[in-house]
Amino acid sequence: EKHFSEFVFIEAGSLFQTRWETLERHRQTLLGSDDIWQYYDAEKERFVFDVIKWIPYDQELYPGVPDEPMYLKPECFESVLFYYQDKDNTLRCPKGIKSEVFMDTLKFFRINSRDMSLGPYEQGTD
Question: Would you list the DSSP string of 35-94?
């Protein structure tokens, strides 16, 4: 049984660790559920999260242009991981991150945005 999970972002190269029991307290979320295993890279022996959303191009304006990936930002994942680790389940948008980007991150990880606590400096940039 693993005591630590490793999360790596391919684009940013960031590495995060946490205990399984920390994640399992939130079974309704992606990281707390068995669905997490679809992101396990056996070769790297880590869970890999990189693209969290595909942004479609308007095919009428840009015919044949493929959808653009939206990559997971390490600052957002750090905030998500703090949500799991904090006894009060505090969830804040990181400074410098647009609210819509953070909301897309929460949606990807299946975290209810109603749990979000926004102070004046945590609201990111719009």
Answer: GGGGGEETTTTEEE--EEEEE---TTTSTTPPPEEEEPPHHHHHHHHHHHHSTT----PP
